[in-house]
Write a structure and sequence with these properties.
This protein has about 230 residues and is an alpha/beta fold. The protein is about 45% helix and about 10% strand. It has helices at about 10-20, 45-60, 70-85, 120-130, 150-155, 170-185, 200-210, 210-230, and strands at about 65-70, 95-100, 160-165, 190-195. The chain has a four-stranded parallel β-sheet, with helices on both faces. The longest helix is centred in the last third of the chain and has 18 residues, at about 210-230. The two termini are about 30 Å apart.
Length: about 230
Amino acid sequence: MGSSYFYLEFLLAWLTLLRHSGYKNPAIFALEYDLVPDRQFPTQLEQTVIGYKYVCSVVKDSSRICVSGDSAGASLILSLLLVMEDHEERRPGFASLISPWPTLFSVKNRDTRSDYLNADSLHLYGRQYAGSEQGLKDPIVSPGLCKDVDRWSRASPKAGFCVMFGSEEVLAPETRDLIALLRKSGCSVSVREAPGGIHAWPVVSLFLADSGLQRLKGLKDLTKMIRRAVETD
């Protein structure tokens, strides 16, 4: 949705769960980046890199950092990892991706009966972000296009990835391809594919689910995977 204010309840709930899981002083840095069509690549990626460098300056030990994003935010996380591939000392400890958008324009992105996203709108936004048809072919812009397993091996967070998505997503086929590619690269990847789930279901569930248990299910799963990957204080 582009604004950290929209995610405020989600982030506060996540912070509480992280604390209850055993972290004494967890902190969340939420990046506010410019949106299309007002800005295009590389603005958003540059802002992501600046934000990550700031977090590194505070935390010092990058293995204690978990980078995360949903949808376009998850795509920016993948781009960030590729940009940082040759800086092993600054690689994060873990990456949690919620309904990532790996390839901005793909024939595999097809409408489903359940998902609220549609492929045509995604491709329009992808073109606006890339700025040109040539830009759509750049793996830094559209990280799902990077098929170099050695590169992904170098870019991988130290404890790997977790990926959460829904089986009914427009982006589900490309997400499955990304998971297979990361595993082929030797990366550790934990996966939660929700049967019948829609785009960004852990976020959507927090606002729309009927019970407290359902509202927090996605966040609890994310927290468990982070807890296994990143040491407590």
